[in-house]
Amino acid sequence: MYRKEIKVLDCTVRDGGLMNNWQFSDEFVKAVYDACVASGVDYMEVGYKSSEKAFDRKEVGAMKFCDDKDLRRIFGDNNTNLKLSAMADIGRIEPDDIAPKSESLLDMIRVACYVHQVDKAVWLAEHCMDKGYEVTINLMAVSTVMERDLNEALEDVNKSKVPIFYLVDSFGSMYCEQIELLVNKYRERLPGKTLGVHMHNNMQLAFSNTITGIINNCNMLDATLLGIGRGAGNCPLEILMAFLKNPKYKLRPIFDVIQKQLIPLQKEIDWGYHIPYLITGALNQHPRSAMKWMDSDNKNDFVSFFEQFLDHEDL
Amino acid sequence: MYRKEIKVLDCTVRDGGLMNNWQFSDEFVKAVYDACVASGVDYMEVGYKSSEKAFDRKEVGAMKFCDDKDLRRIFGDNNTNLKLSAMADIGRIEPDDIAPKSESLLDMIRVACYVHQVDKAVWLAEHCMDKGYEVTINLMAVSTVMERDLNEALEDVNKSKVPIFYLVDSFGSMYCEQIELLVNKYRERLPGKTLGVHMHNNMQLAFSNTITGIINNCNMLDATLLGIGRGAGNCPLEILMAFLKNPKYKLRPIFDVIQKQLIPLQKEIDWGYHIPYLITGALNQHPRSAMKWMDSDNKNDFVSFFEQFLDHEDL
Asked: What is the radius of gyration, based on Cα positions, of chain B?
Protein backbone atom coordinates (compact mmCIF):
# COMPACT_ATOMS: atom_id res chain seq x y z
CA MET A 1 0.00 0.00 0.00
CA TYR A 2 1.79 3.13 -1.22
CA ARG A 3 0.38 6.62 -1.57
CA LYS A 4 2.76 9.52 -1.38
CA GLU A 5 0.34 11.72 0.59
CA ILE A 6 0.36 9.33 3.55
CA LYS A 7 1.99 10.62 6.73
CA VAL A 8 2.65 8.48 9.78
CA LEU A 9 2.42 10.05 13.24
CA ASP A 10 4.02 8.22 16.15
CA CYS A 11 2.26 8.95 19.45
CA THR A 12 4.18 6.45 21.60
CA VAL A 13 5.08 8.98 24.28
CA ARG A 14 1.87 11.00 24.24
CA ASP A 15 -0.59 8.08 24.31
CA GLY A 16 1.69 5.68 26.18
CA GLY A 17 2.09 8.34 28.86
CA LEU A 18 -1.57 7.86 29.75
CA MET A 19 -0.39 4.58 31.34
CA ASN A 20 2.45 6.00 33.46
CA ASN A 21 1.69 9.72 33.82
CA TRP A 22 4.46 10.47 31.30
CA GLN A 23 7.10 9.26 33.76
CA PHE A 24 9.45 8.39 30.91
CA SER A 25 13.20 8.89 31.20
CA ASP A 26 14.78 11.40 28.83
CA GLU A 27 16.71 8.44 27.43
CA PHE A 28 13.48 6.63 26.50
CA VAL A 29 11.95 9.68 24.81
CA LYS A 30 15.20 10.35 22.93
CA ALA A 31 15.41 6.70 21.80
CA VAL A 32 11.87 6.87 20.40
CA TYR A 33 12.75 10.14 18.68
CA ASP A 34 15.93 8.68 17.16
CA ALA A 35 13.98 5.67 15.88
CA CYS A 36 11.33 7.92 14.34
CA VAL A 37 14.00 9.99 12.61
CA ALA A 38 15.88 6.92 11.33
CA SER A 39 12.78 5.08 10.14
CA GLY A 40 11.29 8.02 8.26
CA VAL A 41 8.24 8.57 10.49
CA ASP A 42 6.72 11.93 9.55
CA TYR A 43 5.53 13.26 12.92
CA MET A 44 6.26 12.36 16.53
CA GLU A 45 3.73 13.46 19.11
CA VAL A 46 5.89 13.96 22.16
CA GLY A 47 3.22 14.73 24.72
CA TYR A 48 0.51 17.14 25.78
CA LYS A 49 0.68 20.90 25.81
CA SER A 50 -0.96 21.56 29.19
CA SER A 51 -1.23 24.45 31.57
CA GLU A 52 1.08 24.24 34.59
CA LYS A 53 -2.01 25.15 36.63
CA ALA A 54 -3.93 22.07 35.44
CA PHE A 55 -1.43 19.41 36.58
CA ASP A 56 1.21 18.94 39.26
CA ARG A 57 4.79 18.23 38.15
CA LYS A 58 5.16 15.98 41.19
CA GLU A 59 2.56 13.66 39.63
CA VAL A 60 3.15 13.90 35.90
CA GLY A 61 6.30 13.88 33.81
CA ALA A 62 7.67 16.68 31.66
CA MET A 63 5.95 15.48 28.46
CA LYS A 64 2.57 16.38 30.00
CA PHE A 65 3.60 20.02 29.53
CA CYS A 66 5.99 20.01 26.55
CA ASP A 67 7.80 23.07 27.82
CA ASP A 68 10.31 24.22 25.27
CA LYS A 69 13.22 23.92 27.69
CA ASP A 70 12.38 20.24 28.27
CA LEU A 71 12.00 19.60 24.55
CA ARG A 72 15.33 21.25 23.73
CA ARG A 73 17.10 19.30 26.47
CA ILE A 74 16.03 16.07 24.75
CA PHE A 75 15.77 16.94 21.06
CA GLY A 76 18.31 19.77 20.73
CA ASP A 77 17.24 21.96 17.83
CA ASN A 78 15.65 19.01 16.00
CA ASN A 79 17.47 19.58 12.74
CA THR A 80 15.77 16.59 11.12
CA ASN A 81 12.86 15.88 8.79
CA LEU A 82 10.78 14.64 11.74
CA LYS A 83 8.12 17.11 12.80
CA LEU A 84 7.22 17.36 16.48
CA SER A 85 3.64 17.52 17.66
CA ALA A 86 1.84 18.02 20.98
CA MET A 87 -1.78 17.41 21.84
CA ALA A 88 -3.89 20.05 23.56
CA ASP A 89 -7.03 19.02 25.45
CA ILE A 90 -9.80 21.60 25.54
CA GLY A 91 -10.09 22.96 29.09
CA ARG A 92 -6.57 22.00 30.14
CA ILE A 93 -4.68 24.70 28.32
CA GLU A 94 -4.77 28.50 28.23
CA PRO A 95 -4.20 30.17 24.85
CA ASP A 96 -1.33 32.13 26.41
CA ASP A 97 0.46 28.89 27.29
CA ILE A 98 1.18 28.46 23.60
CA ALA A 99 4.26 30.38 22.48
CA PRO A 100 4.62 31.65 18.92
CA LYS A 101 5.95 28.93 16.63
CA SER A 102 9.14 30.95 16.13
CA GLU A 103 9.99 30.39 19.81
CA SER A 104 8.98 26.71 19.95
CA LEU A 105 10.40 23.37 18.86
CA LEU A 106 6.88 22.11 18.14
CA ASP A 107 5.64 22.03 14.56
CA MET A 108 2.07 20.93 15.13
CA ILE A 109 -0.62 21.26 17.80
CA ARG A 110 -3.42 18.68 17.69
CA VAL A 111 -6.56 19.83 19.49
CA ALA A 112 -8.56 17.00 21.07
CA CYS A 113 -12.18 17.62 21.95
CA TYR A 114 -15.55 16.03 22.59
CA VAL A 115 -18.44 16.90 20.32
CA HIS A 116 -19.83 19.62 22.60
CA GLN A 117 -16.42 21.31 22.59
CA VAL A 118 -15.99 21.59 18.83
CA ASP A 119 -16.53 25.36 18.77
CA LYS A 120 -13.81 25.80 21.40
CA ALA A 121 -11.56 23.43 19.49
CA VAL A 122 -11.98 25.40 16.28
CA TRP A 123 -11.15 28.59 18.16
CA LEU A 124 -8.04 27.12 19.78
CA ALA A 125 -6.84 25.44 16.58
CA GLU A 126 -7.19 28.67 14.60
CA HIS A 127 -5.41 30.50 17.44
CA CYS A 128 -2.52 28.01 17.05
CA MET A 129 -2.54 28.48 13.27
CA ASP A 130 -2.27 32.22 13.79
CA LYS A 131 0.77 31.58 15.97
CA GLY A 132 2.38 29.63 13.11
CA TYR A 133 1.65 25.98 13.86
CA GLU A 134 0.23 23.18 11.77
CA VAL A 135 -2.98 22.04 13.46
CA THR A 136 -5.54 19.25 13.53
CA ILE A 137 -8.80 18.70 15.37
CA ASN A 138 -9.28 15.21 16.81
CA LEU A 139 -12.92 14.55 17.68
CA MET A 140 -12.94 11.96 20.46
CA ALA A 141 -15.54 9.33 21.36
CA VAL A 142 -17.46 9.69 18.10
CA SER A 143 -18.93 6.22 18.69
CA THR A 144 -21.26 7.79 21.27
CA VAL A 145 -22.25 10.90 19.31
CA MET A 146 -25.75 11.23 17.86
CA GLU A 147 -25.91 11.79 14.13
CA ARG A 148 -27.52 15.24 14.37
CA ASP A 149 -24.79 16.49 16.73
CA LEU A 150 -22.03 15.04 14.60
CA ASN A 151 -23.37 16.70 11.45
CA GLU A 152 -23.48 20.06 13.25
CA ALA A 153 -19.92 19.64 14.53
CA LEU A 154 -18.70 18.78 11.04
CA GLU A 155 -20.39 21.91 9.71
CA ASP A 156 -18.44 23.99 12.24
CA VAL A 157 -15.17 22.33 11.27
CA ASN A 158 -15.95 22.71 7.58
CA LYS A 159 -16.39 26.48 8.00
CA SER A 160 -13.07 26.73 9.83
CA LYS A 161 -9.54 27.17 8.49
CA VAL A 162 -8.43 23.94 10.20
CA PRO A 163 -6.99 21.72 7.45
CA ILE A 164 -6.87 18.27 9.13
CA PHE A 165 -9.61 16.37 10.96
CA TYR A 166 -9.27 13.03 12.75
CA LEU A 167 -11.56 10.05 13.10
CA VAL A 168 -10.83 8.79 16.64
CA ASP A 169 -12.07 5.46 17.98
CA SER A 170 -11.56 6.40 21.63
CA PHE A 171 -13.20 3.28 23.05
CA GLY A 172 -11.87 0.77 20.52
CA SER A 173 -15.47 -0.11 19.76
CA MET A 174 -15.72 0.25 16.00
CA TYR A 175 -15.16 -2.13 13.09
CA CYS A 176 -14.56 -1.62 9.40
CA GLU A 177 -18.11 -0.89 8.24
CA GLN A 178 -18.53 1.81 10.90
CA ILE A 179 -15.15 3.33 10.07
CA GLU A 180 -16.01 3.39 6.38
CA LEU A 181 -19.35 5.10 6.98
CA LEU A 182 -17.81 7.77 9.21
CA VAL A 183 -14.83 8.43 6.95
CA ASN A 184 -17.14 8.85 3.99
CA LYS A 185 -19.34 11.21 6.00
CA TYR A 186 -16.30 13.22 7.08
CA ARG A 187 -15.05 13.42 3.49
CA GLU A 188 -18.41 14.48 2.14
CA ARG A 189 -18.93 17.16 4.77
CA LEU A 190 -15.33 18.41 4.93
CA PRO A 191 -14.38 18.86 1.26
CA GLY A 192 -10.73 19.72 0.75
CA LYS A 193 -9.63 18.75 4.25
CA THR A 194 -7.14 16.00 5.02
CA LEU A 195 -8.48 13.17 7.18
CA GLY A 196 -6.62 11.19 9.83
CA VAL A 197 -7.32 8.07 11.88
CA HIS A 198 -6.45 7.26 15.49
CA MET A 199 -7.58 3.77 16.47
CA HIS A 200 -7.59 1.71 19.68
CA ASN A 201 -7.06 -2.01 20.02
CA ASN A 202 -9.75 -3.22 22.45
CA MET A 203 -11.10 -5.65 19.86
CA GLN A 204 -7.73 -6.13 18.10
CA LEU A 205 -8.98 -3.93 15.28
CA ALA A 206 -6.68 -0.90 15.59
CA PHE A 207 -4.45 -1.83 12.66
CA SER A 208 -7.31 -3.19 10.59
CA ASN A 209 -9.36 -0.02 11.12
CA THR A 210 -6.31 2.01 10.12
CA ILE A 211 -6.18 0.00 6.88
CA THR A 212 -9.85 0.80 6.33
CA GLY A 213 -8.91 4.46 6.80
CA ILE A 214 -6.11 4.13 4.23
CA ILE A 215 -8.39 2.42 1.71
CA ASN A 216 -10.85 5.29 2.16
CA ASN A 217 -8.20 7.93 1.58
CA CYS A 218 -7.24 8.97 5.09
CA ASN A 219 -3.68 10.25 4.91
CA MET A 220 -2.69 10.96 8.54
CA LEU A 221 -2.11 7.68 10.37
CA ASP A 222 -1.50 7.47 14.12
CA ALA A 223 0.41 4.54 15.60
CA THR A 224 2.64 3.68 18.56
CA LEU A 225 5.58 1.35 19.11
CA LEU A 226 4.32 -2.12 20.05
CA GLY A 227 0.87 -0.52 20.27
CA ILE A 228 1.61 1.15 23.61
CA GLY A 229 -1.20 3.40 24.77
CA ARG A 230 -4.11 3.76 27.10
CA GLY A 231 -5.66 0.43 28.00
CA ALA A 232 -5.64 -1.91 25.03
CA GLY A 233 -3.34 0.49 23.24
CA ASN A 234 -3.13 1.71 19.67
CA CYS A 235 -2.33 0.66 16.14
CA PRO A 236 1.19 -0.84 16.36
CA LEU A 237 3.64 1.34 14.43
CA GLU A 238 5.75 -1.65 13.38
CA ILE A 239 2.80 -3.41 11.70
CA LEU A 240 1.72 -0.23 9.95
CA MET A 241 5.25 0.46 8.69
CA ALA A 242 5.62 -3.14 7.47
CA PHE A 243 2.34 -2.74 5.57
CA LEU A 244 3.09 0.60 3.92
CA LYS A 245 5.33 0.08 0.94
CA ASN A 246 6.65 3.64 0.86
CA PRO A 247 10.41 3.38 0.32
CA LYS A 248 11.02 6.30 2.70
CA TYR A 249 10.07 4.10 5.67
CA LYS A 250 12.62 1.75 7.27
CA LEU A 251 11.75 -1.05 9.66
CA ARG A 252 15.09 -1.84 11.26
CA PRO A 253 15.22 1.21 13.60
CA ILE A 254 11.67 0.40 14.70
CA PHE A 255 12.54 -3.16 15.69
CA ASP A 256 15.71 -1.88 17.34
CA VAL A 257 13.95 0.59 19.64
CA ILE A 258 11.24 -1.96 20.43
CA GLN A 259 13.74 -4.54 21.61
CA LYS A 260 15.84 -2.01 23.54
CA GLN A 261 13.14 0.19 25.06
CA LEU A 262 9.60 -1.19 24.72
CA ILE A 263 10.19 -4.82 25.70
CA PRO A 264 11.84 -3.75 29.01
CA LEU A 265 9.01 -1.24 29.58
CA GLN A 266 6.45 -4.05 29.27
CA LYS A 267 7.69 -5.31 32.64
CA GLU A 268 6.54 -2.04 34.24
CA ILE A 269 3.42 -1.15 32.27
CA ASP A 270 0.80 -3.70 31.20
CA TRP A 271 -0.81 -2.19 28.11
CA GLY A 272 -2.38 -4.17 25.28
CA TYR A 273 -5.25 -6.54 24.62
CA HIS A 274 -6.85 -7.85 27.80
CA ILE A 275 -10.37 -9.13 28.39
CA PRO A 276 -11.59 -6.13 30.48
CA TYR A 277 -10.64 -3.81 27.61
CA LEU A 278 -12.44 -6.09 25.15
CA ILE A 279 -15.55 -5.85 27.33
CA THR A 280 -15.60 -2.03 27.48
CA GLY A 281 -14.79 -1.84 23.76
CA ALA A 282 -17.51 -4.29 22.74
CA LEU A 283 -19.98 -2.39 24.93
CA ASN A 284 -18.88 1.02 23.58
CA GLN A 285 -17.80 2.26 27.00
CA HIS A 286 -14.91 4.44 28.15
CA PRO A 287 -12.00 2.16 29.17
CA ARG A 288 -11.57 3.81 32.58
CA SER A 289 -13.45 1.08 34.47
CA ALA A 290 -11.36 -1.59 32.73
CA MET A 291 -8.14 0.25 33.55
CA LYS A 292 -9.18 0.43 37.20
CA TRP A 293 -10.00 -3.30 37.14
CA MET A 294 -6.63 -4.11 35.56
CA ASP A 295 -4.95 -2.22 38.41
CA SER A 296 -6.77 -4.23 41.07
CA ASP A 297 -5.93 -7.57 42.69
CA ASN A 298 -8.70 -9.34 40.80
CA LYS A 299 -7.70 -8.18 37.36
CA ASN A 300 -8.08 -11.70 35.96
CA ASP A 301 -11.61 -12.16 37.32
CA PHE A 302 -13.18 -11.32 33.98
CA VAL A 303 -16.58 -12.78 34.80
CA SER A 304 -17.08 -10.42 37.75
CA PHE A 305 -16.04 -7.46 35.65
CA PHE A 306 -18.43 -8.51 32.86
CA GLU A 307 -21.33 -8.99 35.27
CA GLN A 308 -21.15 -5.36 36.34
CA PHE A 309 -22.36 -4.31 32.92
CA LEU A 310 -25.17 -6.72 32.22
CA ASP A 311 -28.55 -7.97 33.21
CA HIS A 312 -27.63 -11.12 35.12
CA GLU A 313 -30.54 -13.08 33.74
CA ASP A 314 -29.01 -13.65 30.33
CA LEU A 315 -25.25 -13.91 30.16
CA MET B 1 -23.73 -8.94 13.01
CA TYR B 2 -26.37 -11.68 12.94
CA ARG B 3 -26.99 -14.27 10.26
CA LYS B 4 -28.58 -17.52 11.27
CA GLU B 5 -26.41 -19.62 8.92
CA ILE B 6 -23.24 -18.65 10.80
CA LYS B 7 -21.50 -21.46 12.70
CA VAL B 8 -18.59 -20.93 15.06
CA LEU B 9 -15.92 -23.60 15.32
CA ASP B 10 -13.60 -23.54 18.34
CA CYS B 11 -10.18 -25.03 17.55
CA THR B 12 -8.50 -24.13 20.86
CA VAL B 13 -7.21 -27.65 21.49
CA ARG B 14 -6.37 -28.60 17.89
CA ASP B 15 -4.52 -25.41 16.93
CA GLY B 16 -3.27 -24.61 20.44
CA GLY B 17 -1.79 -28.11 20.58
CA LEU B 18 0.67 -27.09 17.87
CA MET B 19 2.37 -25.10 20.67
CA ASN B 20 2.65 -27.93 23.24
CA ASN B 21 2.32 -31.16 21.24
CA TRP B 22 -1.25 -31.54 22.56
CA GLN B 23 0.07 -32.11 26.09
CA PHE B 24 -3.18 -30.83 27.59
CA SER B 25 -4.67 -32.35 30.72
CA ASP B 26 -8.06 -34.04 30.37
CA GLU B 27 -9.33 -31.38 32.76
CA PHE B 28 -8.27 -28.59 30.38
CA VAL B 29 -9.87 -30.24 27.35
CA LYS B 30 -13.06 -30.92 29.31
CA ALA B 31 -13.20 -27.32 30.56
CA VAL B 32 -12.93 -26.01 26.99
CA TYR B 33 -15.65 -28.45 25.94
CA ASP B 34 -17.95 -27.39 28.79
CA ALA B 35 -17.44 -23.73 27.87
CA CYS B 36 -18.22 -24.43 24.22
CA VAL B 37 -21.41 -26.27 25.19
CA ALA B 38 -22.54 -23.54 27.61
CA SER B 39 -21.75 -20.67 25.27
CA GLY B 40 -23.50 -22.14 22.25
CA VAL B 41 -20.40 -22.71 20.09
CA ASP B 42 -21.44 -24.94 17.17
CA TYR B 43 -18.34 -27.12 16.67
CA MET B 44 -15.30 -27.92 18.78
CA GLU B 45 -12.26 -29.25 16.97
CA VAL B 46 -10.68 -31.44 19.60
CA GLY B 47 -7.51 -32.42 17.78
CA TYR B 48 -6.06 -34.28 14.82
CA LYS B 49 -7.06 -37.65 13.50
CA SER B 50 -3.61 -39.13 12.88
CA SER B 51 -2.18 -42.54 12.27
CA GLU B 52 -0.48 -44.13 15.30
CA LYS B 53 2.36 -44.94 12.90
CA ALA B 54 2.93 -41.28 12.07
CA PHE B 55 3.53 -39.99 15.62
CA ASP B 56 4.86 -41.30 18.93
CA ARG B 57 2.56 -41.17 21.96
CA LYS B 58 5.60 -40.43 24.11
CA GLU B 59 5.95 -37.12 22.28
CA VAL B 60 2.43 -36.03 21.52
CA GLY B 61 -0.75 -36.02 23.62
CA ALA B 62 -3.92 -38.00 23.04
CA MET B 63 -5.62 -35.26 21.02
CA LYS B 64 -3.08 -35.78 18.21
CA PHE B 65 -4.88 -39.09 17.54
CA CYS B 66 -8.48 -38.53 18.69
CA ASP B 67 -8.94 -42.20 19.48
CA ASP B 68 -12.52 -42.85 20.40
CA LYS B 69 -11.60 -44.26 23.81
CA ASP B 70 -9.78 -41.03 24.69
CA LEU B 71 -12.66 -38.92 23.44
CA ARG B 72 -15.24 -40.91 25.42
CA ARG B 73 -13.12 -40.71 28.58
CA ILE B 74 -13.32 -36.91 28.38
CA PHE B 75 -16.63 -36.16 26.66
CA GLY B 76 -18.72 -39.19 27.65
CA ASP B 77 -21.35 -39.73 24.95
CA ASN B 78 -21.49 -35.99 24.15
CA ASN B 79 -25.24 -35.69 24.52
CA THR B 80 -25.17 -32.00 23.69
CA ASN B 81 -25.74 -29.70 20.71
CA LEU B 82 -21.97 -29.23 20.33
CA LYS B 83 -20.56 -31.15 17.39
CA LEU B 84 -17.03 -32.56 17.64
CA SER B 85 -14.53 -32.25 14.85
CA ALA B 86 -11.02 -33.52 14.13
CA MET B 87 -8.56 -32.39 11.50
CA ALA B 88 -6.84 -34.86 9.17
CA ASP B 89 -3.59 -33.87 7.44
CA ILE B 90 -3.00 -35.47 4.06
CA GLY B 91 -0.16 -38.00 4.40
CA ARG B 92 -0.49 -38.44 8.16
CA ILE B 93 -3.58 -40.61 8.18
CA GLU B 94 -4.59 -43.92 6.58
CA PRO B 95 -8.19 -44.22 5.36
CA ASP B 96 -8.60 -47.31 7.58
CA ASP B 97 -7.76 -45.24 10.67
CA ILE B 98 -11.15 -43.61 10.31
CA ALA B 99 -13.93 -45.65 11.88
CA PRO B 100 -17.50 -45.48 10.58
CA LYS B 101 -19.35 -42.52 12.07
CA SER B 102 -21.68 -44.94 13.91
CA GLU B 103 -18.70 -46.08 16.02
CA SER B 104 -17.21 -42.63 16.60
CA LEU B 105 -17.90 -39.62 18.80
CA LEU B 106 -16.67 -37.33 16.02
CA ASP B 107 -19.23 -35.54 13.86
CA MET B 108 -16.92 -33.87 11.38
CA ILE B 109 -13.55 -34.50 9.74
CA ARG B 110 -11.78 -31.48 8.28
CA VAL B 111 -9.18 -32.37 5.68
CA ALA B 112 -6.22 -29.98 5.56
CA CYS B 113 -4.07 -29.94 2.45
CA TYR B 114 -1.66 -27.91 0.35
CA VAL B 115 -2.60 -27.07 -3.20
CA HIS B 116 -0.73 -30.01 -4.76
CA GLN B 117 -2.64 -32.37 -2.46
CA VAL B 118 -6.15 -31.27 -3.38
CA ASP B 119 -6.95 -34.44 -5.33
CA LYS B 120 -5.95 -36.55 -2.34
CA ALA B 121 -7.95 -34.28 -0.05
CA VAL B 122 -11.07 -34.66 -2.18
CA TRP B 123 -10.63 -38.43 -2.13
CA LEU B 124 -10.16 -38.56 1.65
CA ALA B 125 -13.02 -36.14 2.33
CA GLU B 126 -15.43 -38.13 0.15
CA HIS B 127 -14.20 -41.30 1.89
CA CYS B 128 -15.12 -39.71 5.24
CA MET B 129 -18.51 -38.63 3.85
CA ASP B 130 -19.15 -42.21 2.78
CA LYS B 131 -18.38 -43.27 6.36
CA GLY B 132 -21.05 -40.86 7.61
CA TYR B 133 -19.14 -37.72 8.64
CA GLU B 134 -19.64 -34.07 7.85
CA VAL B 135 -16.51 -32.90 6.04
CA THR B 136 -14.64 -29.81 4.94
CA ILE B 137 -11.50 -29.19 2.90
CA ASN B 138 -9.13 -26.55 4.29
CA LEU B 139 -6.66 -25.37 1.66
CA MET B 140 -3.57 -24.15 3.53
CA ALA B 141 -1.00 -21.53 2.58
CA VAL B 142 -3.09 -20.08 -0.23
CA SER B 143 -1.05 -16.86 0.03
CA THR B 144 1.78 -18.66 -1.79
CA VAL B 145 -0.30 -20.38 -4.49
CA MET B 146 -0.15 -19.22 -8.09
CA GLU B 147 -3.46 -18.20 -9.63
CA ARG B 148 -3.44 -20.95 -12.28
CA ASP B 149 -2.89 -23.68 -9.68
CA LEU B 150 -5.55 -22.27 -7.38
CA ASN B 151 -8.12 -22.17 -10.17
CA GLU B 152 -7.40 -25.80 -11.02
CA ALA B 153 -7.69 -26.84 -7.36
CA LEU B 154 -11.02 -25.04 -7.07
CA GLU B 155 -12.25 -26.85 -10.17
CA ASP B 156 -11.45 -30.18 -8.50
CA VAL B 157 -13.25 -29.17 -5.32
CA ASN B 158 -16.20 -27.86 -7.31
CA LYS B 159 -16.64 -31.24 -9.02
CA SER B 160 -16.55 -33.05 -5.66
CA LYS B 161 -19.33 -33.80 -3.18
CA VAL B 162 -17.47 -31.90 -0.44
CA PRO B 163 -19.91 -29.24 0.81
CA ILE B 164 -17.62 -26.88 2.78
CA PHE B 165 -14.38 -25.21 1.73
CA TYR B 166 -12.09 -23.05 3.87
CA LEU B 167 -10.04 -19.97 3.16
CA VAL B 168 -6.97 -20.41 5.40
CA ASP B 169 -4.41 -17.68 6.05
CA SER B 170 -1.70 -20.06 7.26
CA PHE B 171 1.03 -17.45 7.50
CA GLY B 172 -1.09 -14.58 8.82
CA SER B 173 0.02 -12.57 5.83
CA MET B 174 -3.22 -11.37 4.30
CA TYR B 175 -5.36 -8.26 4.79
CA CYS B 176 -8.95 -7.42 3.97
CA GLU B 177 -8.64 -6.70 0.25
CA GLN B 178 -6.84 -10.01 -0.34
CA ILE B 179 -9.40 -11.91 1.72
CA GLU B 180 -12.23 -10.30 -0.19
CA LEU B 181 -10.73 -11.18 -3.57
CA LEU B 182 -10.14 -14.81 -2.59
CA VAL B 183 -13.55 -15.28 -0.95
CA ASN B 184 -15.24 -13.91 -4.05
CA LYS B 185 -13.16 -16.21 -6.25
CA TYR B 186 -14.04 -19.19 -4.06
CA ARG B 187 -17.74 -18.28 -4.17
CA GLU B 188 -17.74 -17.84 -7.94
CA ARG B 189 -15.94 -21.11 -8.60
CA LEU B 190 -17.66 -23.18 -5.93
CA PRO B 191 -21.35 -22.39 -6.40
CA GLY B 192 -23.58 -23.90 -3.75
CA LYS B 193 -20.78 -24.69 -1.32
CA THR B 194 -20.47 -23.20 2.15
CA LEU B 195 -17.30 -21.18 2.77
CA GLY B 196 -15.30 -20.95 5.97
CA VAL B 197 -12.41 -18.82 7.24
CA HIS B 198 -9.43 -19.73 9.43
CA MET B 199 -7.18 -16.74 10.12
CA HIS B 200 -3.89 -16.17 11.91
CA ASN B 201 -2.86 -13.16 13.92
CA ASN B 202 0.72 -12.34 12.83
CA MET B 203 -0.33 -8.83 11.80
CA GLN B 204 -3.18 -8.58 14.36
CA LEU B 205 -5.65 -9.11 11.53
CA ALA B 206 -7.15 -12.51 12.44
CA PHE B 207 -10.41 -11.11 13.82
CA SER B 208 -10.62 -8.37 11.23
CA ASN B 209 -10.09 -10.85 8.38
CA THR B 210 -12.79 -13.04 9.92
CA ILE B 211 -15.15 -10.04 9.81
CA THR B 212 -14.26 -9.58 6.13
CA GLY B 213 -15.20 -13.23 5.68
CA ILE B 214 -18.53 -12.65 7.43
CA ILE B 215 -19.30 -9.57 5.33
CA ASN B 216 -18.59 -11.66 2.23
CA ASN B 217 -20.91 -14.46 3.32
CA CYS B 218 -18.54 -16.99 4.85
CA ASN B 219 -20.56 -18.96 7.38
CA MET B 220 -18.03 -21.26 9.08
CA LEU B 221 -15.84 -19.23 11.42
CA ASP B 222 -12.81 -20.66 13.21
CA ALA B 223 -11.59 -19.15 16.47
CA THR B 224 -9.75 -20.10 19.66
CA LEU B 225 -9.92 -19.01 23.28
CA LEU B 226 -7.68 -15.99 23.84
CA GLY B 227 -6.43 -16.60 20.29
CA ILE B 228 -4.28 -19.57 21.33
CA GLY B 229 -2.67 -21.30 18.36
CA ARG B 230 0.51 -21.77 16.45
CA GLY B 231 2.83 -18.77 16.67
CA ALA B 232 0.84 -15.57 16.69
CA GLY B 233 -2.32 -17.58 17.18
CA ASN B 234 -5.81 -17.32 15.79
CA CYS B 235 -8.94 -15.21 15.78
CA PRO B 236 -9.87 -14.88 19.48
CA LEU B 237 -13.15 -16.68 20.15
CA GLU B 238 -14.19 -14.17 22.82
CA ILE B 239 -13.91 -11.22 20.43
CA LEU B 240 -15.80 -13.05 17.70
CA MET B 241 -18.58 -14.09 20.09
CA ALA B 242 -18.87 -10.53 21.44
CA PHE B 243 -19.21 -9.29 17.85
CA LEU B 244 -21.81 -11.79 16.68
CA LYS B 245 -25.22 -10.74 17.88
CA ASN B 246 -26.78 -14.20 17.61
CA PRO B 247 -28.79 -14.72 20.81
CA LYS B 248 -27.75 -18.38 20.95
CA TYR B 249 -24.21 -17.36 21.89
CA LYS B 250 -23.30 -16.56 25.51
CA LEU B 251 -20.14 -14.79 26.62
CA ARG B 252 -19.99 -15.59 30.32
CA PRO B 253 -18.79 -19.24 29.96
CA ILE B 254 -16.11 -18.03 27.55
CA PHE B 255 -14.72 -15.50 30.01
CA ASP B 256 -14.97 -18.09 32.77
CA VAL B 257 -12.85 -20.71 31.00
CA ILE B 258 -10.35 -18.07 29.90
CA GLN B 259 -9.75 -16.89 33.44
CA LYS B 260 -9.61 -20.41 34.88
CA GLN B 261 -7.71 -22.27 32.15
CA LEU B 262 -6.14 -20.00 29.52
CA ILE B 263 -4.60 -17.33 31.75
CA PRO B 264 -2.72 -19.98 33.78
CA LEU B 265 -1.66 -21.69 30.52
CA GLN B 266 -0.11 -18.43 29.32
CA LYS B 267 2.60 -18.94 31.93
CA GLU B 268 3.64 -22.16 30.16
CA ILE B 269 3.04 -21.37 26.49
CA ASP B 270 3.87 -18.04 24.89
CA TRP B 271 1.51 -17.75 21.94
CA GLY B 272 0.23 -14.50 20.46
CA TYR B 273 1.51 -11.41 18.72
CA HIS B 274 5.30 -11.07 18.82
CA ILE B 275 7.64 -9.28 16.45
CA PRO B 276 9.20 -12.42 14.87
CA TYR B 277 5.71 -13.59 13.90
CA LEU B 278 4.95 -10.16 12.45
CA ILE B 279 8.10 -10.42 10.36
CA THR B 280 7.26 -13.85 8.86
CA GLY B 281 3.65 -12.78 8.32
CA ALA B 282 4.55 -9.51 6.60
CA LEU B 283 7.03 -11.42 4.41
CA ASN B 284 4.50 -14.18 3.62
CA GLN B 285 6.69 -16.89 5.15
CA HIS B 286 5.88 -20.01 7.15
CA PRO B 287 6.11 -19.14 10.89
CA ARG B 288 8.45 -22.05 11.68
CA SER B 289 11.60 -19.88 11.70
CA ALA B 290 9.88 -17.39 14.00
CA MET B 291 8.74 -20.16 16.34
CA LYS B 292 12.31 -21.48 16.51
CA TRP B 293 13.56 -17.94 17.23
CA MET B 294 10.96 -17.47 19.97
CA ASP B 295 12.21 -20.69 21.58
CA SER B 296 15.81 -19.47 21.62
CA ASP B 297 17.71 -17.36 24.16
CA ASN B 298 17.74 -14.35 21.85
CA LYS B 299 14.02 -14.29 21.19
CA ASN B 300 13.89 -10.53 21.80
CA ASP B 301 16.68 -9.74 19.35
CA PHE B 302 14.25 -8.79 16.63
CA VAL B 303 16.79 -6.93 14.51
CA SER B 304 18.97 -10.04 14.06
CA PHE B 305 15.93 -12.13 13.15
CA PHE B 306 14.80 -9.50 10.64
CA GLU B 307 18.25 -9.24 9.06
CA GLN B 308 18.18 -12.92 8.13
CA PHE B 309 15.46 -12.20 5.61
CA LEU B 310 16.67 -9.08 3.91
CA ASP B 311 19.29 -7.50 1.79
CA HIS B 312 21.35 -5.67 4.41
CA GLU B 313 21.91 -2.65 2.21
CA ASP B 314 18.47 -1.22 2.69
CA LEU B 315 16.74 -1.90 5.99
From this structure: 19
